[in-house]
Design goal:
6-stranded antiparallel sheet; 5-stranded antiparallel sheet
């Protein structure tokens, strides 16, 4: 009887630990800061979750150069393909954690922008009219973890706009 109880509890523990490895694609991941390699957002109100599998470069990349921090996020829903992805690049001078930074292609905003590619590889870009924000909540260069939240509106070449809200990421550098 003790063995049956032990194996039952062990099985429940193993099943619940697998949950973190395979993010449910219908639910946004938690906004964590521990390098869980999760990311997601609402795209026009629909849940979008990035794959947890390793993706092509540049992936997630961060570096400090003097007072500038370069952060590049390549979040993909379909492994190794250029469709259904969110790309964010932000070069931030004097980065402060939990400060909100603009995403656009406006030269006054510096080099900070976002791109969404849909399933048909139609690209939507932020610009001076369709903008967004990013907030870095953790940047740990030693342990190679970057976490934060984002949102943006972006437009394609035909003038169609996509709205990305409740974005979050908790990534280890690739």
């Amino acid at each position: 009887m003790k063995n049956l109880l032990f194996f039952t509890l062990l099985s429940i523990g193993l099943l619940s630990s697998c949950k973190d490895d395979n993010q449910d694609p219908t639910v946004l991941p938690e906004a964590t800061q521990s390098g869980k390699n999760t990311a997601g957002a609402l795209i026009d109100g629909k849940v979008w979750v990035a794959t947890t599998k390793k993706i092509n470069q540049p992936g997630t990349y961060c570096e400090n150069s003097g007072n500038r921090t370069n952060i590049t996020l390549e979040l993909r829903q379909i492994e190794n393909q250029g469709r259904n992805s969110i790309s964010i690049t932000a070069i931030i001078e004097d980065l402060e954690l939990n400060k909100i930074y603009p995403l656009s292609e406006d030269p006054d905003a510096g080099h900070k922008f976002a791109i969404y590619n849909d399933n048909n590889v139609v690209s939507y870009h932020t610009n001076s009219t369709n903008t967004g924000t990013i907030k870095i909540t953790r940047l740990d260069l030693q342990n190679q973890i970057v976490s934060g939240i984002f949102e943006f509106k972006a437009v394609n070449n035909n003038g169609n706009v996509v709205t990305v809200t409740e974005g979050r990421f908790d990534k280890k550098f690739d």
